[in-house]
Structure formats: C-alpha cells, structure tokens
Amino acid sequence: MLLGASLVGVLLFSKLVLKLPWTQVGFSLLFLYLGSGGWRFIRVFIKTIRRDIFGGLVLLKVMVKVRQYLRERRTVPILFTSTVRRHPNKTALIFEGTDTHWTFCQLDDYSSSVANFLQARGLASGDVAALFMENRNEFVGLWLGMAKLGVEAALINTNLRRDALLHCLTTSRARALVFGSEMASAICEIHASLDPSLSLFCSGSWEPSAVPTSTEHLDPLLKDAPKHLPSCPDKGFTDKLFYIYTSGTTGLPKAAIVVHSRYYRMAALVYYGFRMRPDDIVYDCLPLYHSAGNIVGIGQCLLHGMTVVIRKKFSASRFWDDCVKYNCTIVQYIGELCRYLLNQPPREVENQHQVRMALGNGLRQSIWTNFSSRFHIPQVAEFYGATECNCSLGNFDSQVGACGFNSRILSFVYPIRLVRVNEDTMELIRGPDGICIPCQPGEPGQLVGRIIQKDPLRRFDGYLNQGANDKKIAKDVFKKGDQAYLTGDVLVMDELGYLYFRDRTGDTFRWKGENVSTTEVEGTLSRLLDMADVAVYGVEVPGTYKFQKTELRKEGFDPAVVKDPLFYLDARKGRYVPLDQEAYSRIQAGEEKL
C-alpha cells in the first residue's frame, strides 16, 4: 500500500509540478517500482501467471457447475443417472478381491434395489442408515441406494470397536444398520447396548449363529426388490448425502456432514485440476468410509464415468500386480503407502504398468522424487483437503513437495490464508486491530479459509455436534466481523505461493492412513492397564508425517535421551518389545516396519 501511494505521489509531482512528458513520467515510475523491490513481483508474475490462470479457470468452472446443480437440485444420484445414460455397459467398478465387475447399469440396478427395499421397510428422506463394511462394490451400491431415497448414510470406520463404535451408531441416530459379515463379531460385542428399534441387516456370507438374533440377511432380500427408481413422497429436499467420521479431541469420533454439492465439488476440483480423462482407470485401495477413497476416488466413477478398481486393503506386495492386471492409469495414495512401496524390493512388474498419475496427499518431499522416478510415474497429483474443510488445495503442476498453491498476484480469488500462531498453544496471534496476522513467505502458520455460507466453494457444513463446529470456527480473521474455518494444520508458503505441509495441531497422529486421537488411545490404555492417568503423545519418525505434542515430543524416542523404559510394536512378532539403541538405529534407517 505504501509503495502504491509513493507511485501515485511521483506521478502527480512529475506531471503537475515538473510538467514532464508522459514517457519520462513512465520511466520514472518504472525505476521507482523496480528500485523498491517491484522486480520481485515481476518475477513472481512471470513464473506463476499460467498456473494461476489455470487454477482460476478450474475454480470458475466448478463454481458454475455447482451453482447450476444447486439451482436445479441435481443430487449425486441424479448426476449418476446421467453417467449411466452415457456409459450403460461400461465397467464402473471392479472388486479385486473376487474379480467382480459391475457395469454402470448393474450398479444402478443394485442401488435402486437398495432404495426400494429400505423404502418398503419404512425409511424415508431425512432418515439415517449406518453402513459398517469393508471395501467392495456393494459398499458403493448401498450408500448410493440410500441417497436415491434421500436417506443419509453414516459411514462407520471399520477399525472402530466397543465404545467408539457404539458412540458413532448412537450419535448418528440411525434407524437401520447394514454391516458386512466380516464385521459381525464387532456388532455382537455391542449388541446389548444398541437401541432395540435399530434394524440390523447383514451383507455377505450368512452364518445365523455369528450375528445377533434380530439380524436379517440382506442379499436375498435385495434380489426380490424392484430395480427401478423408487417413487418418493415429497418430504422436502435433503441436502445431506452422508456422514464421515473424523478423529475428535474428546477421544470419540465426530461426524462430518457431506452434502451433495460438497461431494461434487471435491470430485470435480480433482478431475479438472489434474486433467483426468473419462477413459482413466483408477486404483482405489483407500478406505471407502473416508473422503479420499469415497469422494476423490469413487466420485470419478459416479460423476465422470471412470472405471474404479476397489481393493479391500492396501497391499505393498500386490500393488503393482493389480495395476498391471487391470490396466490402471491412476493410483491413489496417502504418504505412508508410498514409503511402504519404496521399501519393497525392486521387481520387474514395476516397469510394466500404465500408471500416468499418482493422486493423493501426504507424500513427503524427501521421498517424492525417488517415488516418481523409481516407479516411472510422470505426474504426482498431490492435494490437501480435510473432509469438512472449505480451503482445499491442489498441486496442479507437480511442484516437488508442495500440497497446493495460492496465487500471490490474485490472492483475492481464493480467500485462504496462513496466519501466525503461538507454536506452543496454537492460539491465533492477532494485531492491535484484533485481526489475525498473515504470514510472510517462509513463515509457518495455520491454514484458514474464510467462510461464506452462500458460496458453495466457501461454505462450512460442519459436524452433527454443534460444539465441534464452534471449535473449528474463528472470528475476525481476514477482517472484522468475518468467520473462518480453522484447519488445525501448519503450512509454509514460498515466494511463488506454493504451500508445503509442516505439522498438524491438536492431539492426533497418523496410523495406517487414519487420523487417530491420542485421547482415544489414552482411554483405551487406561482401561486395559487399570491406570487412572495415561498420557499418549506423538513423536516424529522418518517416513511418517503428521505427529505432534508439547515438550515430550521434543525428546523423541531416542533411548539415549529418554530415561523411561521405551517399547515399540514389532510387526513380525505381533507384540510390544523393548526399544533399545539397536532397534532405534533400525527405525531411523527405515529398516523396521512400524
């Protein structure tokens, strides 16, 4: 602002007082501008203008489409119907576990059977049904069928047990629970605590003795259900599509609301931003109860007509064999998966695939180049975006290590910002005017996104629990009276506007792709050890990338520094063993699987 005022002053003085010709005035302004550091702006402009224009056009295209779909009330099932018309006999889903192929017509028929069956059982628009099942084609067909009826699906994390599982089912207020037969033992553990009015349906292999007595076998019931779209009485349009459970600071998961427009927005930003194609084949080995697997991955099938290969769980030893077998062109990842793949011994199959893009988040800068060069992947499509956030980012030009960018010359187009925080307490630092202080390039800060509820790209849909919403919203961030979403993540921006992940605030850490609440682990250990006070904290381990907590973190887990007994989970032995200096060295060298 000061530089702009100076330029205006020079212009007025040169023209009105000195009466210089316009050419001399122009040169004077240019020299002043460059001498005041303006050459940096020119450098940034030249290096980023193409990137920024492309990113702006992607945002504009997605915003126009989302507004149109909202105006026309085109839900995800309606958009899927359009996809079915375009590709009726094309393969939509492949389940690697059984090599089961579903065409778009078959997926449409299955999901319509689900909708008609649930309607016959009394469920209607606005009701909730919980889904507790491992990855497979039926998972997609079930929540899609619920959505056709207007029933909101609560997608339950299959790693949850006992208190956490019961909490998710109870807080969702589900009227029905559909679970896979592989999850029957987990349901039996909590059956006595479930609401008696909750209808139970099991999908998969049927063993009546292995499930609660009130459970019905879903698969034969669906075969008898009509395969046309159900006629739904008008109970009012429901904007909610499903709930995804994220780690909570209280130790119990919290349900993030995913509305139809958010589902489309997230899938479309990835599709257009990373230049995907309808003939791409996506390899999806991520959990379908999370947004990366179910929106970023499956969304490309439902909305854009791609074929998606679903794997029950990630396997480092079978990853490239699957890609070759199914001619995959895009693979999904989270950071740990890339490290596991790099730790595998080289095999010839690594050179036989047709993968042109790796799509995901959390790939560390230290292994980025090794990953892309060893496996011959031309494009690493790294993105950032929690399920509920309003400030998603995309690294559209494969800048090594970056999770996205924000324009330095057109920053007003996408109102996100890094703001200063106290690194010990993570409290926002504000200036004398009460507004949060923005970070300069190279300065770490918390990523925030301005909330504009009328804007489909800026709205915050929040959680079922209003108290959880309050903790994620700050006021007076960009200007007085505004509201912004707090990501809880610390990033750093470079001079060109590229953003790099630095750390995650809050009491969470990463475990096999999951954000795990340390409070939840504390509660479990307290019960198992019969101890009143237990403290769980994350320490940084090379290859991992999202750990944190207070002073204990700084000590790490070096037995030469920490005087207390240390233990780690030995994957080969399947139990905790003492962590000595030799084991510590193996972990540091990446030789020990954690």
TrEMBL record:
The chain crosses the membrane at residues 29-46. Its main location: membrane. Residues 81-394 form the AMP-dependent synthetase/ligase domain. GO terms for cellular component: endoplasmic reticulum membrane; plasma membrane. Keywords: Ligase, Lipid metabolism, Lipid transport, Membrane, Nucleotide-binding, Transmembrane, Transmembrane helix, Transport. Pfam families: AMP-binding. GO terms for biological process: long-chain fatty acid import into cell; medium-chain fatty acid transport. Signal peptide: none annotated. PROSITE patterns: AMP_BINDING, LIPOCALIN. Belongs to the ATP-dependent AMP-binding enzyme family. This is Long-chain-fatty-acid--CoA ligase.
